[in-house]
Amino acid sequence: MSDSRAKKRMRLRGLIAKEFLQIWRDPSSLAIAFMLPVLLLFMFGYGVSLDAKRVPIGWVVENTTPETASFTAAFQQSEYFQSFHFADMAAAEHALLNRKIMGIIRLRGNFSSQLFKQNSPAIQVVVDGVDANTARLVSGYVQGTWNEWLSHLSRSRGTTLSRPVIAEQRIWYNSAVLSKDFLVPGLIAMIMTLTGALLTAMVMAREWERGTLEAMIATPVTMGEVLLGKLIPYYLLGMGGMLLSIAMAVFLFDVPLRGSFWVLLLTGTLFLLVALGMGLLISIIAKNQFVAGQAAIIVTYLPAFLLSGFIFNINSMPAAIQAFTYLVGARYFVAILQTVFLAGDVWPVILPNALALALMAAVLFALAAKKAPKRLE
C-alpha cells in the first residue's frame, strides 16, 4: 500500500513538474498571472473613476452683489466644479446643448433680496441628464454646496436659518466616497476570474491539440492525477496574482484592509477553485485552445464584469437578471472583498458567500471529473 502511494506521489510530482516547465516555456501564462493584474489595477485605479470631478458648470449672474460673489467663490474653490460665466441664459443653454458644460446655475436679479424668504427659489439649476449618473452627482454636489454656503452665511450674519429638516449625513466604510476604494477590491475578483479561468481553459485543450493527452491516458497515470497535475501549478500562479493585487491595493492605492488577511486568503482560495473548475470544464469540452479561450472570456469574465456587482448595482437589475447572478461566482467574492476591505469581518456576509463558492467549486470539479476522458477513443 505504501509503495502504491509513493508511486502515486511520484507520478503527481512528475506531472506538476511537467506543467511548471510548460508554464516556464510559455511566457504568456506568466504574463496573464502577474502582468495582467498590474495592468488592470493601474487602469482602474488611476484611469477609471466614478467620481464627478472638474465638472464644467455655467454661471448666469443677473445682478452682481456681495452675496452672489460669495456663492460663486464657493464653487470656484471646489475640486468638483470648473466654472464658466455667461452673459445670459440663451448663451448658457447653447453651451449646454453643445455639451461644453454639464449644468447651469442661474442667480436671478433678486437673489440677495429673496435669499432668506420662505417659498422663494433663490437659484435655478439646470443639469444635462444625458449621463444620468453624472447628473445625479452634480445635483447632489450643487445641493450640498448650496446648503453649506447658506449655513455659513447665516452664521456670519448672526441669524438662524429656518429650515424644517436639517439632514446630518454620515457615510460609513468609505467616508471619503472614493470610487477607487470601491472599484479596486472588486477588481481583484475580475483579475482572478481571468487568470484562473483563462489559464486553465488552455491546458487540456492544448493536450488535445498536440495529441499528448492520448499518450498520458496510455500510461499508468490516472485522470485524477492528470487533473491535479494541471490544477496545482495554476492555483499557485493564481494565488500569487491575488497576493500581488492585494499588496498593490493596500500599499499603492491606499485602500483600507479592515478585515482579516487570512479570511481574504481563504475565501480567495475558494473563488480561485471556482475559476479553475470553470476553466478546466471549458478546456475539457472545447478540445481547441482558441475556442476554449473565447469561451472562457464569454462564460466567465463578461458575466463577472457585468453581473457581479463590481460596477453595476445588482438590486437595480430586472428580477430575471438578478436571479441569473446567483450562478456567477464573482458575485459572492465581490461581496466578500468589499466587505473585508472596507467594513471588516462581517460574518453574516462572509459565511453565506463563502459557502456558495465552496458549493460551486464542488459542482464544477465534479462535472470536470465526469467529462474528463477515461480511455482512448
If you had to describe this structure to a student in words, what would you say it looks like?
By secondary structure, the protein is an alpha/beta fold. It contains 13 helices and 4 strands. Helix 9 (261-286) packs parallel to helix 13. The mean pLDDT is 79.
Outline:
This protein is α/β, with parallel strands linked by helices.
Question: What's the layout of helices and strands?
Answer:
Layout: H1 2-25, H2 27-47, E1 55-61, H3 66-76, E2 81-86, H4 89-97, E3 103-107, E4 123-127, H5 132-157, H6 179-210, H7 212-217, H8 223-252, H9 261-286, H10 289-307, H11 319-324, H12 329-342, H13 347-371
Parallel strand pairs: 1-2, 1-3
Antiparallel strand pairs: 3-4
The SSE string, one letter per element, is HHEHEHEEHHHHHHHHH
Give me the count of strands. 4
Catalogue the unreliable spans.
none
Span from first to last CA?
31 Å
User: Class by helix and strand content?
Assistant: alpha/beta
Salient structural properties:
377 residues, four-stranded mixed beta sheet, single chain, 4 strands, 6% strand
